[in-house]
Amino acid sequence: MARDAAGIERPEAVFDREAEWEALAAFVTDRRPGPALGLVTGRRRQGKTYLLQALTRATGAFFFGAREGTERESLQHLAEAFADHTGSPRVPAWRNWDDAVDALLGSGGERPASVVVDQFPDLVGQSPTLPSVVHRAFKRAGHTPRTRLLLGGDSSLVTNRLFTDHSALRELAGMSITVEPFDFRQAAAFWDIDDPRLAALLHSVVGGTPAHRGFASGEGPTGIEDFDAWMCRTVLNPRTPLHWEAARLLNEEADQHDRPLCHSILRAVALGHVTPWAVTQHVSRPRTDVSHALRLLEHCGLLRGEPDAFHPAALRYRIAEPLLAFDHAVVAPRRSAPEQEDAGGAWEGLASDFNGTAVPAAFAQICRDWALRFASPDTFGAPVAAAAHGTLPRTENGPEHEAEVVVRGGGSRGPLLSVGQARWNEIMDIHHLDRLRHVLAVLAARGEDTSRTKPACYGGAGFSPRLHAAQDRGEVLLVDLDRLYHGE
Question: pTM to 2 decimals?
Answer without folding.
Answer: 0.91
